Amino acid sequence: DPYSSDPERHPVLRVNSLKPFNAEPPPELLSDSYVTPSAIFFKRNHLPVPRVDPASYELQVDGLPGGGLKLSLEDLKNRFPKYTVTATLQCAGNRRSEMNAVKQVKGLNWGISAISNATWAGARLRDVLLAAGYGPDAARWARHVQFEGLDKDVTGTTYGASIPVNKATNEEGDVLLAYEMNGEPLPPDHGFPVRVVVPGTVGARNVKWLSKITVSAEESSSHWQQNDYKGFSPTTDWDTVDFKSAPAIQELPVQSAITVPADGAAVPRGSEEVTVKGYAWSGGGREVVRVDVSLDGGKTWQVAELRSSDGGQNAEPSPPPGRAWAWKLWELTAPLPSEARQLEIVCKAVDNSYNMQPDTVAPIWNLRGVLSNAWHRVKVNIVD
Ligand code: MTE
Ligand code: MO
Fold first, then answer.
1. Residue nearest atom 20 in ligand 1 by C-alpha distance
2. Which domains are assigned to the chain?
3. CB 3.0–4.6 Å: which of 254, 255, 280, 341 could bond 288 by disulfide?
4. Within 120-246, where are the H helices?
5. Which residues contact 373 (CB under 8 A, 6 or more apart)?
6. How far, in Å, from the CA of 370 to the mean position of ligand 1?
7. Cβ-count burial of 118 within 10 angstroms (0-12 exposed, 13-18 middle, 19+ buried)?
8. What gap in Å lies between CA 326 and CA 308, rounded to an integer?
């Protein structure tokens, strides 16, 4: 069994698939902590978890003139300054189950918790590329930075992905070769000993168990870059889809969801108030500036409070422009409408480019069920 050396996992996780292991935390736990504890951080593996000996680990940097660079874990820690970045990671398939409810899609049936927030620390990819010889000459032809993982399928094919070279080398891109998650060495499920953290960019490019970095004129040729993680029109089906016709997903669109109450929850009649909680985030470092909440299916709206990272009531000061990598948790307490038998609670977020979420799923439905970011809706019953 290629999965026999997979690590143990926290029993509270909701498992979508065991081999490979894919799981998400219960939504109400997500909004309990600004920084998601690693044990309940969502886990998305395509392949068995490789067990890597940190003493013999080697990271190869290729594609630049001068023969490339080989770095041990100690080199990475000692030769480059350590940076810390709090960044939210979201799988392109987060909330896929809502697309499945419209019409069947192919992929793991994620709920709303294929997203989590962690504090990552490591070397900057930019610094490592500069040390490997990246400069004005390479900038003339280099367009992408490719990553390869140590996890393999039965044919020996490894997981791979790439990002634009501008994101990789930009001082404000904050791309890390992370060796710590929440102040500890990376757990096996999250890429021990080293993973790429590409803030603001879809989970799939945040390659775990990193073995190789290649600067190149082309994108990664991996299946996950070329023939997966792309968006299509609702009319595109498996007979007509041409993966070459669409760009690989990089930055993600604006997103929000309600973590509390759960869909189908009961609220006792006579309660004075209802409290709604959730998360909001946008890709590309765009800051979420507002979350609107409706208790009547979207007819009327109230503005939610954006909480600070310590859970306090004051909003966090804004990060530098274009570098809002972490989600915002939000909350709204409102009087319970007195006549209602049922509430349809809805949320939608707005980022600082005034991007907003679409109101329904059908117009953004796509055959792979990615980029599912319609207004999130939960129904709660008022019971006697
Ligand atoms: N890296 C490797 N090597 N193998 C993988 O299967 N999955 C990707 C990405 N990096 C993956 C990977 C996908 S699709 C996502 S959403 C994130 O890792 C999930 O990261 P997490 O398990 O730390 O939450
Ligand atoms: Mo993903």
1. 44
2. 14-245 (3.90.420.10), 255-383 (2.60.40.650)
3. 280
4. 125-131, 136-141, 165-169, 223-226
5. 95, 253, 254, 255, 357, 358, 364
6. 15
7. buried
8. 11
Q: 326, 282, 284, 334: which is closest to 305 by C-alpha? A: 334
Q: Which residue minimizes the CA distance to atom 14 of ligand 1? A: 204
The ligand whose atoms approach the alpha carbon of 205 most closely is 1
Tokens representing 334 are 């409102």
3-state DSSP helix/strand/coil % of the chain, to nearest 5: 15, 35, 50
Give residues (CB < 6 A) around ligand 1. 41-47, 89, 91, 149, 151, 159, 189-190, 203-204, 206-209
Which helix (H) or strand (E) segment holds residue 76: the answer is: helix 73-79
- Ligand 2 centre to CA of 355 (Å) is 22
**How many angstroms separate the alpha carbon of residue 196 from the centre of ligand 1?**
10
SS3 290: strand
- Residue 20: nearest ligand to its CA? 1
**Beta-carbon neighbours within 5 Å of ion ligand 2:** 44, 91, 203-204
What's the N-to-C CA distance of the chain in angstroms? 52
CB 254 within 8 A of CB 286: yes
pTM higher than 0.90: yes
Query: Could you identify the atom of ligand 1 that is nearest to the CA of residue 224?
Result: 14
Cα 92 to ligand 2 centroid, rounded to whole Å: 5
**Quick one: which ligand is closest to 152's CA?**
1
Q: Whose CA is nearest to atom 21 of ligand 1?
A: 43
Identify the nearest ligand to the CA of 206 by its number: 1
The pLDDT profile of the chain, 384 residues, written as one tens digit per residue, is 999 999 999 999 999 999 999 999 999 999 999 999 999 999 999 999 999 999 999 999 999 988 889 999 999 999 999 999 999 999 999 999 999 999 999 999 999 999 999 999 999 999 999 999 999 999 999 999 999 999 999 999 999 999 999 999 999 999 999 999 999 999 999 999 999 999 999 999 999 999 999 999 999 999 999 999 999 999 999 999 999 999 999 999 999 999 999 999 999 999 999 999 999 999 999 999 999 999 999 999 999 999 877 777 666 778 899 999 999 999 999 999 988 899 999 999 999 999 999 999 999 999 999 999 999 999 999 998
